[in-house]
């Protein structure tokens, strides 16, 4: 995520203004719609999409256009036969080795960024799940007023934890609107949080974590919950703190800046050289043909898209909490967690258990197959069920196969069944032998309940 923050700082001159709450919602709406495209459209429909694609991102990349312009100028002068003769000597220069090494480093860059996204997505899902775990536990163990306050504190932690991870989600455009909408914190609690700079560091969400732990301690002191339940609450709350701490750790250091600079430097040198080389090789003067120009030009464009595209793709994945449509859906996580936890608070207990009701439900169920029956069936030869007659024996009757010839003769069936009988006999003998050896090795009879003195359980 360090690379992502660096890229955002470079682009900062173009978009210094902080996104508003309405703009965040608009980006999230586009993001969710794009996520639903995969698997719901045909191949050709996917190819011709523009919004949310890498091609749209590449349209503003200067290096891509510089490479194309260099190739175009070379071809124009080649048709006019106005190129310096010295360029003919470097027309056959082999820069393929540079391209191979650059491709290797770019693939590693993308792979590292993708691994970071998968890891951060998993941590975000854990943060969401622990809020819901606390809500379920609070609903079933705490009085309502304690449960409601603990759940709103956990949701406040869930929101405050994302503030400061990137330039996109801030206290003013993210936390304040959500708090005003869902009434998470009281004015007194907001006043305390505002004294802490939520945009700088982890102090704000850790402050609310201590409020959650204090609620659990108060409930335990008043004997509203047992010590075991209190320990479960503390475990979930502290794991929530650890997860957000891990997100901030990953944000602090992900990939070396020297590695990122090396990739950018090689790309900036390689692509213009590649465009120049492709333009010279395509022919000069009378050897220049428009069809060759078009084919070579497509190769240059594809090569530029490949090199620049991999770098841009890795840059976007390196900042998973950015404002691009392919970044993580933080607003969706927040909204889903809040609504689900509040729905859990509104859950109603069913009527008391009744023996007659449970028995009536059991009577209407289909019979269950014993697990050992299934194992015995699977141990047989894997053949069609129609090959077996009544009682599980192999059948040689052609009637089971709609007039087809029998699969086995009578002698073959007898041999197979005899083989099964021998295997069953050997298995029983082995089990008996193991039981005799185990009893002789112990040397003393098993201690039963009746052999233990009566005062041993007192």
Walk me through this protein's architecture.
With 458 residues, the protein is mostly helical. It folds into two domains: 1-42 and 49-349, no CATH class; 375-428, no CATH class. The chain is 66% helix and 0% strand. It contains 18 helices and no strands. Helix 7 (96-141) packs antiparallel against helix 12. It starts with a helix and ends in a 16-residue tail after the last helix.
Strand content: under 5%
Specify the biggest β-sheet: none
Cα Rg: 35 Å
Order of helices and strands: HHHHHHHHHHHHHHHHHH
SSE class: mainly alpha
- Measure the end-to-end span: 62 Å
Residue-averaged pLDDT: 80
Total number of strands: 0
Work out the helicity level.
55-70%
Oligomer: single chain
What is the 3D shape? Answer: flat
Number of helices: 18
Q: Spans of 5+ residues with little confidence (pLDDT < 50)?
A: 9-15, 381-405, 438-458
How many separate domains? 2
């Amino acid at each position: 995520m360090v690379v992502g923050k660096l890229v955002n700082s470079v682009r900062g001159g173009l978009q210094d203004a902080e996104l508003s709450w309405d703009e965040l919602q608009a980006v999230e709406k586009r993001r969710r719609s794009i996520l639903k495209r995969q698997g719901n459209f045909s191949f050709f429909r996917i190819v011709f999409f523009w919004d949310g694609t890498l091609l749209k991102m590449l349209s503003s990349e200067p290096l891509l256009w510089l490479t194309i312009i260099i190739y175009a100028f070379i071809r124009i002068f080649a048709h006019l036969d106005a190129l310096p003769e010295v360029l003919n000597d470097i027309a056959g220069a082999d820069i393929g080795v540079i391209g191979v090494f650059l491709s290797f480093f770019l693939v590693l860059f993308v792979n590292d960024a993708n691994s970071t996204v998968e890891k951060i997505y998993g941590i975000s899902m854990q943060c969401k799940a622990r809020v819901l775990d606390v809500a379920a536990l609070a609903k079933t163990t705490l009085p309502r007023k304690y449960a409601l306050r603990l759940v709103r504190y956990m949701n406040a932690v869930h929101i405050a934890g994302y503030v400061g991870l990137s330039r996109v989600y801030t206290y003013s455009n993210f936390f304040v609107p959500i708090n005003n909408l869902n009434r998470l914190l009281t004015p007194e609690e907001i006043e305390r949080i505002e004294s802490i700079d939520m945009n700088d560091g982890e102090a704000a969400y850790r402050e609310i974590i201590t409020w959650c732990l204090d609620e659990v301690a108060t409930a335990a002191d008043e004997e509203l919950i047992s010590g075991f339940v209190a320990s479960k609450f503390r475990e979930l709350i502290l794991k929530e703190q650890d997860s957000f701490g891990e997100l901030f750790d990953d944000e602090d250091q992900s990939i070396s800046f020297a590695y990122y600079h090396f990739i950018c430097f090689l790309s900036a040198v390689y692509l213009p050289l590649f465009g120049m080389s492709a333009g010279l090789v395509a022919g000069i003067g009378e050897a220049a043909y428009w069809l060759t120009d078009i084919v070579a030009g497509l190769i240059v464009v594809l090569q530029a898209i490949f090199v620049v595209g991999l770098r841009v793709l890795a840059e976007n994945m390196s900042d998973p909490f950015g404002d691009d449509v392919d970044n993580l859906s933080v607003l969706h996580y927040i909204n889903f967690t809040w609504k689900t936890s509040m729905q859990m608070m509104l859950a109603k207990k069913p009527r008391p258990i009744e023996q007659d009701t449970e028995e009536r439900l059991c009577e209407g169920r289909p019979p269950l197959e014993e697990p050992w029956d299934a194992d015995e069936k699977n141990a047989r030869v894997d053949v069609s069920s129609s090959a077996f007659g009544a009682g599980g024996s192999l059948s040689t009757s052609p009637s089971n196969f709609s007039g087809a010839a029998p699969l086995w003769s009578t002698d073959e069936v007898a041999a197979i069944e005899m083989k099964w009988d021998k295997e069953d006999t050997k298995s029983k003998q082995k089990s008996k032998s193991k039981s005799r050896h185990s009893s002789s090795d112990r040397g003393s009879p098993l201690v039963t309940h009746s052999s233990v003195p009566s005062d041993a359980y007192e």
